[in-house]
């Protein structure tokens, strides 16, 4: 759907970013000095952690070896700063040719005219049908293709195998079964279920599947949001879910599961490498459903900047990264899932049962594609969940208050 640009809001955001940011991140390159005829492409991403560097270095070296006459100059930023730095570049003129951005950033960047329209290039390329619907839809803004999925993830339900066996509980498949299982698995200082309800996008990422499973969406939050909030509030009221989840990140949730202080947890595939070191057996199943089955799409997209003087060469690089021989080792090194259906039988996810479960859920994964004011709607959702789970508001009242803010935000797109 179209997301017209709110110029005043965009410029206010740029101004705030200009005040908040300094010089940005560090520069890095895998090549030496440019040879005659070589095109240097600037590349920005937020993969700053050490464990990402071997895979990223290999990918860039592969690109420089496989794409004729190209050199990559990479710059990294902390996750929270990358989108703001791109926004700031609208005034400073300091923008990359290529960037890897969080898929939620498409809500803001997609309506700012900063991103190159790839529609015609993609049509000529002919590979759009190879991607799962959710990741591909996350690159569509206003009927245009503004990115290519980089990698994808989603949420599922992990459980401690022995704990469920000892309690004679089957892995839940519905909300009713989840509530019953969580109550029976709660014992002493161990909760039946752990999830993140923190007042950030991380918490909203975990809440939205409940809203969708209830049969609703952000535009029906007053009713379906109340249903989802009431269900979670019931888990807290019965002691099956700790009220402290309002301060837990997804990493905190996984830590409680690893410490066996939660029998089940909602989390993503990025936790699997750590969980493989656990001293107990675990498994993972799809999120339990209510009226519908749903999970939330996470991951990143490749984008090109409309201001680039090297769009043809940048597209050549982007297209090269999507070759199975290039993409598979890159995704494996990051522990990520492919957004392409034709890679389902390659890489670690082809033989790992847990990864295959997450991969099977990608067709159900929904992108958070709600327009340039999504951040305001997301904040309203987070505030409602916090209010209900801390006991400061009833689910119906909190949902109604949030719905007014959400409707205003969605109405401005």
UniProtKB/TrEMBL annotation:
Keywords: Signal, Transport
PROSITE patterns on file: PROKAR_LIPOPROTEIN, TAT
GO CC annotations, alphabetized: ATP-binding cassette (ABC) transporter complex, substrate-binding subunit-containing
One Gene Ontology MF term: maltose binding
Signal peptide: 1-28
One BP annotation, GO: maltodextrin transmembrane transport
Gene3D superfamilies (alphabetical): Periplasmic binding protein-like II
Source taxon at top rank: Bacteria
Family: Belongs to the bacterial solute-binding protein 1 family.
Protein name listed in UniProt: Sugar ABC transporter substrate-binding protein
């Amino acid at each position: 759907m179209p997301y017209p640009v709110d110029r005043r809001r965009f410029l206010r955001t740029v101004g705030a970013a200009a005040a908040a940011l300094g010089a940005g991140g560090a520069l890095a390159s895998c090549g030496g000095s440019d040879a005659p005829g070589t095109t240097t492409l600037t590349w920005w991403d937020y993969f700053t952690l050490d464990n990402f560097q071997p895979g990223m270095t290999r990918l860039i070296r592969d690109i420089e070896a496989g794409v004729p006459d190209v050199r990559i100059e990479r710059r990294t930023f902390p996750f929270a700063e990358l989108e703001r730095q791109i926004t700031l570049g609208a005034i400073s003129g300091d923008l990359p040719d290529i960037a890897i951005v969080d898929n939620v950033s498409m809500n803001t960047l997609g309506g700012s005219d900063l991103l190159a329209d790839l529609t015609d290039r993609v049509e000529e390329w002919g590979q759009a049908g190879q991607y799962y619907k959710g990741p591909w839809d996350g690159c569509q803004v206003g009927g245009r293709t503004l990115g290519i999925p980089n990698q994808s993830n989603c949420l599922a339900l992990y459980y401690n195998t022995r704990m469920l066996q000892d309690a004679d509980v089957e892995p839940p498949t519905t909300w009713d079964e989840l509530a019953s299982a969580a109550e029976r698995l709660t014992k002493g200082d161990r909760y039946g279920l752990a999830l993140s309800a923190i007042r950030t996008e991380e918490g909203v990422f975990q809440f939205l599947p409940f809203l969708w499973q209830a049969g609703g969406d952000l535009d029906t939050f007053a009713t379906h949001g109340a249903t989802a909030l009431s269900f979670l509030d019931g888990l807290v009221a019965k002691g099956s879910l700790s009220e402290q989840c309002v301060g837990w990140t997804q990493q905190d949730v996984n830590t409680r599961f690893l410490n066996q202080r939660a029998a089940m947890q909602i989390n993503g595939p990025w936790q699997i490498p750590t969980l493989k070191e656990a001293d107990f057996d675990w498994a993972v199943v799809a999120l339990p459903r209510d009226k519908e089955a749903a999970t939330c799409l996470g991951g990143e997209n490749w984008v090109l900047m409309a201001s680039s003087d090297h769009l043809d060469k940048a597209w050549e690089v982007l297209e090269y990264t999507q070759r199975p021989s290039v993409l598979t080792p890159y995704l494996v090194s990051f522990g990520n899932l492919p957004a392409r259906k034709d890679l389902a039988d390659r890489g670690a996810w082809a033989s790992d049962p847990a990864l295959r479960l997450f991969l099977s859920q990608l067709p159900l994964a929904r992108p958070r594609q709600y327009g340039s004011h999504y951040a305001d709607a997301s904040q309203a959702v987070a505030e409602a969940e916090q209010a209900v789970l801390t006991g400061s508001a009833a689910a119906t009242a909190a949902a109604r208050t949030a719905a007014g803010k959400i409707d205003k935000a969605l109405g401005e797109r």
